[in-house]
Design brief:
There is one protein chain. By secondary structure, this protein is of the alpha+beta class. It folds into 3 domains: 69 residues, Winged helix-like DNA-binding domain superfamily/Winged helix DNA-binding domain (Arc Repressor Mutant, subunit A); 53 residues, Winged helix-like DNA-binding domain superfamily/Winged helix DNA-binding domain (Arc Repressor Mutant, subunit A, Orthogonal Bundle), CATH 1.10.10.10; 72 residues, SH3 type barrels (Roll), CATH 2.30.30.90. The protein has 8 helices and 8 strands; from the N terminus they run αααββαααββαβββαβ. The strands form 2 sheets. A 6-stranded antiparallel β-sheet has the order 3-8-4-5-6-7. The chain has a two-stranded antiparallel sheet with strand order 1-2. The longest helix is centred in the middle third of the chain and has 23 residues. The protein is globular and about 55 Å long. About 3% of the residues have low confidence.
Length: 221
C-alpha cells in the first residue's frame, strides 16, 4: 500500500488531525478553537487553512470555520489511526502512562508506513478504541469486514464497541444523546424485526432496525 500521508509535511498532518479530533459531528471547526488546540495564533491558523484549501484538503467558510474535504478526511483518519494504535501498544504492551504514550505516539504517527500500521493493528488484535476509549478510525472498505459489522446482526447478550455511525446528522445527534457514539460499549438486550434494544452504560435505548444496520460495531467475543 502506498503511504499517501508521506506526501504531506508533519505540519499539514497536524492541522488535519486536529480538525478531526475537535470537530463535533459534521459542524465546521472555528479558527479560534483550532488555534487553541494547536497553541498558535488565529492569524497563523487562518493563513495555513487558506493554503490547505488551495490543496483541496479542507473548506473554509468565513465566520463559520473549516471542515475537511473527502481527501483531507481520509488523510486525517489514516494519521489518527496510526496514533491511537501506538497509544494502545505503548500503554498495554510497554506499560506507559497515557500522557507519555500520547506524546510518543505524536512522533511515531508520522514515521509509520501503512504496512507497519497494519501489522501493529493485527498484533494488537484489531482494537476498536485507544486507552482513553476514543475510537480508532474506521476505514470503510479498507477495514476487516469480519471484525466490523452492523449492530443489527448481533444477538441478545452480545457486546460490542461502536466504531462508526453511518447516518445523517439528526439521527447521529439522537444516538449520541443516548451515549451511542464511536467508542461506546453496547450490550444487545433484545432484537426484533423492527427494533433493537441496547444498553449503553445504564441507559437503555430502542433503535429502529434500519438505523441499527448503519451502526458499525466491533463484537467483543
Amino acid at each position: 500500500m502506498i503511504d499517501i500521508t508521506s506526501a504531506y509535511s508533519e505540519n499539514v498532518q497536524m492541522y488535519l488531525v486536529s480538525i478531526l479530533r475537535i470537530r463535533e459531528e459534521e459542524a465546521p471547526v472555528s479558527l479560534p478553537d483550532l488555534a487553541k488546540e494547536l497553541s498558535i495564533s488565529t492569524a497563523a491558523v487562518n493563513e495555513m487553512c487558506r493554503k490547505l484549501e488551495e490543496q483541496d484538503l479542507l473548506r473554509y467558510r468565513p465566520y463559520a470555520g473549516v471542515s475537511l474535504t473527502r481527501e483531507g478526511e481520509n488523510l486525517a483518519k489514516l494519521i489518527l489511526r496510526k496514533h491511537r494504535l501506538w497509544e494502545v501498544f505503548l500503554v498495554h504492551k510497554l506499560g506507559y502512562d497515557y500522557q507519555a504514550a500520547h506524546e510518543t505516539a505524536c512522533q511515531l504517527e508520522h514515521a509509520t508506513p501503512p504496512h507497519l500500521a497494519d501489522r501493529l493493528e493485527s498484533y494488537l488484535e484489531r482494537p476498536a478504541v485507544n486507552p482513553q476509549g476514543e475510537p480508532i478510525p474506521y476505514l470503510g472498505e479498507e477495514a476487516d469486514a469480519a471484525s466490523n459489522m452492523p449492530l443489527s446482526l448481533l444477538s441478545p447478550g452480545e457486546e460490542a464497541v461502536v466504531i462508526h455511525l453511518e447516518e445523517d446528522q439528526a439521527v447521529a445527534s439522537f444516538l449520541r444523546a443516548n451515549e451511542i457514539k464511536p467508542g461506546s460499549h453496547a450490550v444487545i438486550l433484545a432484537s426484533g424485526k423492527e427494533n433493537v434494544l441496547v444498553r449503553v452504560n445504564a441507559r437503555q435505548t430502542t433503535i429502529n432496525r434500519d438505523i441499527a444496520e448503519r451502526i458499525r460495531v466491533k463484537p467483543l467475543r
